[in-house]
Specification:
5 strands; 28% strand; flat; three-stranded antiparallel β-sheet; two-stranded antiparallel sheet; single chain; alpha+beta
């Protein structure tokens, strides 16, 4: 069975300007025969992207970019804007502990 690998360039999820090299493995479906015998089932391998290089603009590491692609980027500026908007609407945060 052959695996479809393709070398691609992605845009850095942090600075949105830099480019990173990556390998993309496409989703594959292959037959799988379990230990019980009988009719084979189909096993699905999900699409994967493996980062090969760091960002050439902001200098983020491969591991940081990989984590951001899997879990998303949490922008502190976005969180601060949300807090300011809620405060302007009259919600009191004096007794609430946050991670911001």
């Amino acid at each position: 069975m052959s695996v479809n690998l393709e070398q691609i360039e992605i845009i850095c999820p942090f600075c949105k300007k830099g480019k990173c090299r990556a390998i993309k493995q496409e989703e594959t479906i292959r037959p799988f025969k379990g230990p019980w015998g009988g009719k084979p089932a189909m096993r699905r391998t999900p699409e994967r992207i493996e980062i090969l290089s760091c960002c050439d603009k902001c200098g983020k590491t491969k591991e940081e970019i990989q984590k951001a692609l899997r879990h998303g980027v949490n922008s502190k500026e976005k969180d601060k804007k949300m807090l300011e908007r809620l405060k302007s609407q009259g919600i009191d945060f004096s007794n609430v502990e946050t991670k911001f």
